[in-house]
Design brief:
single chain; mainly beta; Outer Surface Protein A, domain 3; 0% helix; flat; DUF2963 domain-containing protein
């Protein structure tokens, strides 16, 4: 039964260290790709097929968590809403710029 199936692909370098893990949740229809550096996740990208969205996160230099850098969402008219998140040097959110690409 595939209802609760999560597929995981682990990528390792020549020294057998993980540098990327891709996961796909069949039930939620979400694909994520996590990039690691020295065992710490530094970049995460997720595509949600049910909600028609894409999100990109990066590790903050001053915090341990991942910050949302940009996201794309399809609106009800199938236009792409593209948001960019800009942070201050201390990792606090400074501004959000948004544009809509009409199709």
């Amino acid at each position: 039964m595939l209802a609760n199936k999560v597929t995981k692909i682990v990528y390792k370098d020549g020294n057998n260290k993980v540098f990327r893990i891709d996961t796909y949740d069949v039930q939620k229809k979400v694909w994520c790709s996590d990039v690691y550096k020295n065992g710490i996740i530094v970049d995460k990208r997720c595509e949600d097929k049910i909600n028609n969205s894409y999100k990109h996160y990066q590790k903050s230099q001053n915090k341990d968590d991942l910050l949302l850098m940009d996201e794309k969402v399809l609106d009800k008219q199938n236009n792409v809403v593209d948001k960019q998140y800009i942070y201050k040097a201390d990792g606090e959110l400074k501004t959000i710029s948004s544009k809509t690409n009409f199709y």
